[in-house]
Amino acid sequence: METPVKIFACTQSTALAEVIAKAYESPLGKVNFSRYSDGEFQPSFEESIRGARIFIIGSTHPSSENLMEMLLMLDAAKRASARHITAVMPYFGWARQDRKDKPRVPIGAKLIAKLLEAAGATRIITMDLHADQIQGFFEKPVDHLFASTLFLPYIESLHLDNLTIASPDMGGSKRAYAYSKFLNCDVVICYKQREKANVISHMELIGDVTGKNVILVDDMVDTAGTLTKAADLMKERGALSVRAICTHALLSGNAYEKVENSQLESLIVTDSIPPKVSHPKVKVLSCAPLFAEVMRNVHQNQSISSKFIM
Length: 310
Hints:
Strand order of the largest sheet: 10-9-8-11-12-13-14
Number of domains: 2
Mean pLDDT: 94
Largest sheet: 7 strands, mixed
Structural class: alpha/beta
């Protein structure tokens, strides 16, 4: 007897989950959230999931309530005797805390990994982790997808001459080199020093962008301070145009204002995190077809290696 497949959504990712379910050609399962006056909530699956392979879709961007939803739904699925429980996390939150960068701080990404496994996840599907080594925090299988499968065709469709790929910081140099190798173009790197989190004290450019059409690539955009500062610096150094590609659009604080007032021609992101507002400079590419295809291949025991190799 074939194991049935059921897809469910955490509330913060309902819109994306609906598109994924449609691409998978399966209806979105019914979940009810009971809420108490103090803010406590309880998810309840409104259909049997005994013996099923279930996919729970939910990004864990702040607030922490989004993570708590995922954990409670995993636990509910485990106690309802689901056979396979996959946490589909387009954006894996707390990923920036992947190491101890100073004394007396937590390794938040490791803690989240252990919480997900303890809650009942038997597999994790995510996209563009902030650090690849986070996969090693799990004892369960992790399918780490690359949004480059979405972005590279888009870049090629622009037909830009004198294309140069750029990384806004040293940490993203590997990603930038991978893009440049595929596109057969030059690469430049920005070197930045931080005064504190989200505050840049100094930025310098390594490489020449004179007469180039530059595309910055990064895994996430939070306050947009790094991206906009890098774009402005590149225009000062003679770039013809500057665009940015970022997988996860946190866009917190006055990020939209920074993007609006910067030299960026456009910011291309995915819908791994629901867009807060519509903005003329921000273009959203849907990651739903990618996740639907990988979920189908996981269920059918087919290879998905092409989705996480740059």
